[in-house]
Design a protein that fits this description.
alpha+beta; disordered N terminus; three-stranded antiparallel sheet; single chain; 66 residues; Complement Module, domain 1
Amino acid sequence: MQQEQKHRLTGGKRTPEDGVEPVSSQGGRLLSSRDLLEGRRQLQIEHQGAVYTLRVTSKGKLILTK
C-alpha cells in the first residue's frame, strides 16, 4: 500500500510499518493500551523490583496498582 494512501486510512498517524515509532506529544514512546493488553483485562508490570497491575475497569478506565 502506498504511504500516502496508508496515512489517509490511519488518519495521518505513523505506524510501526512506516519504520517510525509513534511518539506522544510529550516526546515519549506512544503505546496503545489495546496492544499492551492484547485482549486481556489486566497485566503485570515489573518496575525496579516491584510488581504493578494494570487493569481495565468495567467502565473502560485504566488503573495501575502496586
